[in-house]
Amino acid sequence: MIKKDLQIIVRMSKNQKLHLQRQSLIAGCSIAEFIRQLVAGTKIEPVPAVGSAELIFAIDKIGNNINQIAKKVNMGNPVTEKLLNEVLDLQIEVMRQVKTIGNNQNSTQALQHSEDD
Questions:
Q1: Domain that holds residue 56
Q2: Same domain for 33 and 59
Q3: What is the distance in angstroms between the CA of the first residue and the CA of the last residue of the chain?
């Protein structure tokens, strides 16, 4: 582990600090670690949001169901209530997951604010 015994103080606007906090949150690290990675020239990749795989799967299922509905309508066939309810249930699940991810990101931001202050 590299010894970190030097401290650099930087003045910036509130907007600049918010931008830095957002970027470090996207990278999944503290502001200090984010800056160290930038200085080292490391390519910084965004960290996938918690639950994003499940969210992508649910959105994909909605897309498939919408395609089934469009195909039936274009062929002149009636769309069943069961299929419409399936799409509605999936949409509710997606919204629940989006809200959960948003709450997780807000919690992470709050933790980072307390670390940085």
A1: 48-117
A2: no
A3: 24
